[in-house]
Structure formats: structure tokens, C-alpha cells
Specification:
With 313 residues, the chain is an alpha+beta fold. The chain is built from 10 helices and 13 strands. The structure holds adenosine-5'-triphosphate and magnesium ion (MG).
């Protein structure tokens, strides 16, 4: 075969493999877009584990009609303009590739309206190809419906687990989103059933109560600490509510759920002597860190974090 440059659709399909692995990745990207759009309420609905149907509705800023097709192009973003902006990026997204990736491997229907617009717009794009764009009545904000994930990439589809397992991944993700933004009201509906609702009243403890139940919520210690560059707030569990794996450890940096070995190790170190070996604490800790000292483009784990252990237990 002669060497040739791949067409955009093929490039997007390949690139989608990096960003979009399963329904939970679609939910993550769309929900983060909703958060970036300053939504105060986000509803996430899935059917069949999200494989056949995902709907995410927000009351955020909406997308201007003239910008809709562009939003689905690769490397198109309203969130940064240059590499320098990466230094101070406050939004969750900035790569400008989520929508193009999802559109490449699914059927998308978008309904959106900005405050300034008189009517809403309905836009349909399937397998990266625009199908339709029309004006329709709609409330302010954005709804994305994503149908039949990987319908045109059967191999990827085969790697998905059962609907129940996929729904479990989405559910865990929604919990992390709710933890990371107590000021946003989240609703999660699975196969027509309400699974989670947070009021958006800003109380992290209320969310812990909703997600983890009374036993956990009544055995917490509040954490609040501040150094020059880092501010920490949230809750940690008393040693008695520790468990056998790390799924109860939740860490957030600047509103983003993260996994960080440095933080995990420091916290677990602090618990040494208080909980048994191979037991892990409950934590829901928010770190607010000067944006310029962390590199979100790689992974926030690279930063140097030092805690005085006593602060935590
Ligand atoms: N729910 C939404 N409300 C308002 N604007 C949105 C919404 N979703 C997407 N957009 C617009 O579409 C653009 C493209 O979204 P996309 O997710 O592809 O890229 P991004 O969020 O900028 O970067 P990343 O790929 O890192 O997520 C966004 O920059 C934003 O301007
Ligand atoms: Mg995005």
C-alpha cells in the first residue's frame, strides 16, 4: 500500500480509542463538559449499562448555534488558546477531543440553547458525520444523547463487559463527580430507576451520607488545613470504618477526582498504628493547589506533596 494521510474520520476513530473506552468514559467527558459549562444541575441517565443509551442534561451555558459543528472537530476547544494557558487551566477539559472522539464511535443527538438565543438547536451526528441541524424549542443548557456506543467498531464493543458491570462503572464515576462538586446537584438514573440524587447545597458530608450511608457519615473527622500553596478540606473516617481495599479513598485536586500514590501513601502512613495492616481508610479530601505548580496535562501525580502526618489522624 502506498503511504497516505488518513482521513479525519479514521483519525478520530483511532483517537477515540484513547479517550473513550467504555460508557463510563462517555459519561465522564460529557459530565465534565457540563461542569465546565458552569451547570448547577446535571442529570445522567443510562440504559443497558450506557451501551445503548446515555443522556446527560445540564443547565449550563449552552453552545452557540454557529459553533456546534466546530465543537465536534478534533482539537477544537473554547477552554484554552495556547500552551501558556495550560499553566493556569481551571476547566476539567482542555484537549478539545472528547466530542470528536465520542461522535466517531456512536450516534449523538445534541439539544442546546444559550441564554442569549431565542430558540434551541437540535444537532445529530453519527459516526462523525453530521446528519441534521434544526431549530427547536429547548430550555437553557445542553442535553447530549449518545446511542449505540461502538456500533461501528464491533471489536471495541466486544471488549465491553455486561450491562450490569458497565452500569457499575458509571455509578462509581457519578459518585466521584458528586463528591468532587458538592455545589452541583447530580441525579443518576439507571434503567429508569433513580440511583443517586445530591441537592447541590455544597455539603460534602450530605453527599457522603447519600453515597456511603449513615455508618460512615457518623464516623468522620473533619479536615481543614492550609499552607501557603495548598488548602485541604474534607473528611476522613475514624479507624473503625476502614475496609479491605482502597475504594473508600477519594482524593480531589482542584475539583478533579485523581489517583495519586503520593497522597495515598501519605494518608495511609498517617493511619499506621491506628488501623490494621491491609485495611484502608475512608477519605474524601479536596486539595486546592495553586494551578501553576501542577501539570494537569500529564497527570497531577508528579507534584511534590508533603503533609505533616499528625495533621490527619
Ligand atoms: N455541555 C456543554 N455545555 C456548553 N458547551 C459545551 C458542552 N459540551 C461541550 N461544549 C463545548 O464544546 C467544546 C468541545 O468539547 P470537548 O469535550 O470536545 O473539548 P474540551 O472539553 O474543550 O476538551 P477535552 O477534550 O479535554 O474534554 C468545549 O470546549 C465547549 O466549548
Ligand atoms: Mg470536554
Amino acid at each position: 500500500m502506498p503511504i497516505q494521510i488518513l482521513d479525519q474520520n479514521t483519525i478520530n476513530k483511532i483517537a477515540a480509542g484513547e479517550v473513550i473506552e467504555r460508557p463510563a468514559s462517555v459519561v465522564k467527558e460529557l459530565a465534565e463538559n457540563a461542569i465546565d459549562a458552569m451547570a448547577t444541575a446535571v442529570t445522567i441517565e443510562i440504559k443497558d449499562g450506557g451501551i445503548s443509551f446515555i443522556r446527560i442534561t445540564d443547565n449550563g451555558c449552552g453552545i452557540d448555534k454557529g459553533e456546534i459543528p466546530m465543537a465536534f472537530l478534533r482539537h477544537s476547544t473554547s477552554k484554552i488558546k495556547s500552551v501558556e494557558d495550560l499553566m493556569c487551566v481551571r476547566s476539567l477539559g482542555f484537549r478539545g477531543e472528547a466530542l470528536s472522539s465520542i461522535a466517531a464511535v456512536a450516534q449523538i443527538e445534541l439539544i442546546t440553547k444559550t441564554k442569549e438565543a431565542f430558540t434551541g438547536v437540535r444537532y445529530v451526528i453519527e459516526g462523525g458525520k453530521e446528519q441534521n441541524m434544526e431549530d427547536i424549542g429547548a430550555p437553557d443548557g445542553t442535553t447530549f444523547i449518545v446511542r449505540n456506543l461502538f456500533y461501528n467498531t464491533p471489536v471495541r464493543r466486544k471488549f465491553l463487559k455486561t450491562a450490569t458491570t458497565e452500569a457499575g462503572y458509571v455509578s462509581a464515576l457519578v459518585e466521584h463527580l458528586a463528591f468532587s462538586h458538592p455545589e452541583i446537584s447530580f441525579r443518576f438514573i439507571n434503567n429508569g430507576q433513580n440511583k443517586l440524587y445530591t441537592s447541590g447545597n455544597g455539603s460534602l458530608k450530605d453527599i457522603i451520607y447519600h453515597v456511603n450511608g449513615r455508618d460512615i457519615a457518623t464516623n468522620l473527622l473533619e479536615v481543614s488545613a492550609k499552607t501557603q500553596d495548598i488548602q485541604i478540606s474534607g473528611f476522613i473516617g475514624k479507624p473503625m470504618i476502614s475496609r479491605g481495599n482502597r475504594t473508600y479513598e477519594n482524593y480531589f485536586i482542584n475539583g478533579r477526582y485523581i489517583k495519586s500514590n503520593i497522597i495515598t501513601r501519605a494518608i495511609e502512613e498517617g493511619y499506621k498504628g491506628y488501623i490494621m495492616q491491609h485495611q484502608y481508610p475512608f477519605t474524601a479530601l479536596h486539595f486546592t493547589i495553586e494551578q501553576s505548580i501542577i501539570d494537569v496535562n500529564v497527570h497531577p501525580t508528579k507534584m511534590e506533596l508533603r503533609f505533616s502526618q499528625n495533621e490527619f489522624v
